[in-house]
Amino acid sequence: xxxxxxxxxxxxxxxxxxxxxxxxxxxxxxxxxxxxxxxxxxxxxxxxxxxxxxxxxxxxxxxxxxxxxxxxxxxxxxxxxxxxxxxxxxxxxxxxxxxxxxxxxxxxxxxx
Amino acid sequence: xxxxxxxxxxxxxxxxxxxxxxxxxxxxxxxxxxxxxxxxxxxxxxxxxxxxxxxxxxxxxxxxxxxxxxxxxxxxxxxxxxxxxxxxxxxxxxxxxxxxxxxxxxxxxxxxxxxxxxxxxxxxxxxxxxxxxxxxxxxxxxxxxxxxxxxxxxxxxxxxxxxxxxxxxxxxxxxxxxxxxxxxxxxxxxxxxxxxxxxxxxxxxxxxxxxxxxxxxxxxxxxxxxxxxxxxxxxxxxxxxxxxxxxxxxxxxxxxxxxxxxxxxxxxxxxxxxxxxxxxxxxxxxxxxxxxxxxxxxxxxxxxxxxxxxxxxxxxxxxxxxxxxxxxxxxxxxxxxxxxxxxxxxxxxxxxxxxxxxxxxxxxxxxxxxxxxxxxxxxxxxxxxxxxxxxxxxxxxxxxxxxxxxxxxxxxxxxxxxxxxxxxxxxxxxxxxxxxxxxxxxxxxxxxxxxxxxxxxxxxxxxxxxxxxxxxxxxxxxxxxxxxxxxxxxxxxxxxxxxxxxxxxxxxxxxxxxxxxxxxxxxxxxxxxxxxxxxxxxxxxxxxxxxxxxxxxxxxxxxxxxxxxxxxxxxxxxxxxxxxxxxxxxxxxxxxxxxxxxxxxxxxxxxxxxxxxxxxxxxxxxxxxxxxxxxxxxxxxxxxxxxxxxxxxxxxxxxxxxxxxxxxxxxxxxxxxxxxxxxxxxxxxxxxxxxxxxxxxxxxxxxxxxxxxxxxxxxxxxxxxxxxxxxxxxxxxxxxxxxxxxxxxxxxxxxxxxxxxxxxxxxxxxxxxxxxxxxxxxxxxxxxxxxxxxxxxxxxxxxxxxxxxxxxxxxxxxxxxxxxxxxxxxxxxxxxxxxxxxxxxxxxxxxxxxxxxxxxxxxxxxxxxxxxxxxxxxxxxxxxxxxxxxxxxxxxxxxxxxxxxx
Lengths: 112, 902
Hints:
The structure holds two protein chains of two kinds.
Chain A: H1 14-22, E1 28-29, H2 30-40, H3 49-62, E2 65-71, E3 77-83, H4 85-110
Helix pairs in contact in A: 1-4
Chain B: H1 2-37, H2 42-53, H3 56-67, H4 70-88, H5 90-119, E1 130-137, E2 142-145, H6 149-158, E3 162-175, E4 182-189, H7 193-197, E5 203-204, H8 209-213, E6 218-221, H9 223-230, E7 240-246, E8 252-263, E9 275-280, H10 290-298, E10 306-311, H11 317-334, E11 349-353, H12 354-359, H13 361-395, H14 397-405, H15 410-444, H16 460-487, H17 490-495, H18 502-540, E12 551-557, H19 566-582, E13 587-593, E14 606-609, E15 617-618, E16 630-634, H20 638-641, E17 646-649, E18 661-665, H21 666-672, E19 682-685, E20 695-701, E21 716-720, E22 725-732, H22 740-750, E23 755-761, H23 762-769, H24 771-805, H25 807-815, H26 820-849, H27 865-891, H28 895-900
Parallel strand pairs in B: 4-9, 6-8, 16-21, 18-20
Antiparallel strand pairs in B: 1-2, 1-10, 1-11, 3-4, 3-7, 3-10, 5-8, 6-9, 7-8, 12-22, 12-23, 13-22, 14-15, 14-19, 17-20, 18-21, 19-20
Helix pairs in contact in B: 1-2, 1-3, 4-15, 5-13, 5-15, 5-16, 6-11, 13-16, 13-18, 13-24, 15-16, 18-24, 18-26, 18-27, 19-22, 24-26, 24-27, 26-27
């Protein structure tokens, strides 16, 4: 360990959407979010804390998530993020937008 | 929403920072645990987790930045930087803040008085439509006289300018029930009076028209009386109040019980706070004598009632007055003043806003004048601080140049300096406010009889004023130095050692200009203060006609019921008191007078016998100039107690009660006796006709100025008689206050029910007469002295600055053989030029401005040359040492040190 592959450049704004998506299943702390993203993406998306935490603050500022201090699995003080109603709505619209974009890119790529 | 969250963040940034730090630490710890689970040793896991996380500070900063608001952020930076700069120069900051705090504090204090007395609305509904209507006839020196009941009725029915008119009068009264009898003022008002003012009672109700005409014995209490006498009892309506005093017609009333029907709200007063309850204007006086008073109600030619009115929309003071004067014209034709009623003031009316009448025009003028003066002090303080900032700006040029070189925009520099100025002003505003709040306690406790002065307080209006004054001050003293600093050529500054660059030359010019302006303003203030001080000194040197030293003045009220023979009993009681007090050790003389102070100009007519024994009567309205004769009841000992000189004849004896004898004053003799020997001559109070009551003149005394020292003495005569309430003068050897207890005891011994209403030394009583003038004079003099001191500081600063800039040149001069004296002369010659220019401008400005003072002066001409010369001398005496001290220091320059420094 120790050598982490640089995560591939994400399209702008997608990190916020991905974080929101990980929170759909329930509240998570920062480390949990990062781990979840890594697992689900099979180690493709490794989000460093230097992008994760600013992103979380951005989501807080916009009111898409709420933060609360609580105890982690090992009784450590951790800050749990919960999706708000506004966040859920945002996730939906982001998702639509993203799928439209991906679809468009794929259509471009499929043309000989 | 975002804005709200961001604003919250401003106050919670530390919290957010802590949260982030902990969060990231948790992140690392969890990572470490994971690594350990995969088989790494704790040490390796720890190191690996740290490495994995990399620069956590950056992560934290980036996270924090999400919340940031660039503009506010930068402003905070400027504020923080400014605060650091101010802290780093504590002496500069201290001087600047204290100078400004002095100006802002003084201005705030005076404004709080103006606010309480002049600006705060009267406690009535829509007070701007309320007017006071008086009879005014400048040709007879009548300014604010009342009128008769029928005339008010004519005004009410014939003029369309008012929604309604109401009448009022004040009288003295005593409250008996419950504890010590208490002397208060009371108001007699018409039933519609409170409706015209538009104020509803806090409890109960006010008078009805039926109560007015049926002469019901009902009363409405002031809030203060209700609190004091009835302990704020809610169920006060229907209870009785036991009172006596004067009837609305001015006659003495016996003790009677009146029913309480209402309580006015807190803050309501009319016409002043001393008035404690109100009764319907037609309240009957003594039982069984209604006819006597009926006549007063139908008599056209009295001046008993004061009038207030509420203007209709479209009504102004001017057109209302024109209306009433038109009606008055008709009335004066229909009801010519009958023979023998010369005291009737006539029908010519004057309408002024109620606020102006309650406050008084000269008082308003004086207060505005003080506010103007204190604003000048604030301006001078600003000029001084601007000058200080300019001087400091020279020292800071390198710092600013470096900042510009490092990429700071000029706008940013201007903003930086402006923020510093605002910080200074804000600090000064806080200190000033603190100083003002202790200052206004002095105003509020002042004895100056200004209506509502005691209401002076720091309210939101005053706070807003202080804030605005601080802001304006910051702009005045801060803007020029800020732009000056930003405009400067920073390229030169960095290469600098060249001291006499164009920059410092310009700084010197601006600072010189500031000193000129400061001196000019100080001179204007000094001239104004000088004129007032001269007036006051003049006033103090006026001979009052009696000797106030060692005299105790006591107002005694004897509640003797008006039963048969009560006049004799009253005289006897007062004579007994006089005798007993004279026996108190240390007392030399004692005597009573009806009213020691004459409040308003009296107008009793007098009829003279042409020659002794001849029946022919010379009517007062004939060829004699009779503007007013004052009559006063006295007891035999009075004139000796006041040390009033006897010019001719004799004093009264104690056997002469109500005898047809009189003592007249010199003014009386001068006006009416036309060189004949007055002793033995006879005259009759009143205007002759069938009511002749001859009095023989038995003595002539000197004039007393009892209308205030500013009024010329009135012609007076004194008769040996008494009234229920009299002023007792007690002359003692030594301190008059020492016999106060004994005097009180002797009065009680003669009549247990006697009330001592007031007990003061005559000196204190006289001081009260001139309290308003003293108040104005003292404040203006204080402001002028502060202005002068600030100007001196300004001069000192500029000369010192000039010396510092020319150090090298001075060193060379010394090296070439100049003596210290030459250098002092050189520096002073240039330094004194500024105050001299300021003096010239200031004297010119003062000469143009002092005209507004005219009404406040006493026997001093606004252009008084002595005052102006004194001001010039005073400024000179201040400016010379202010120049000399820094000049002398500069002259001690050691040429070797200066030249080596190059």
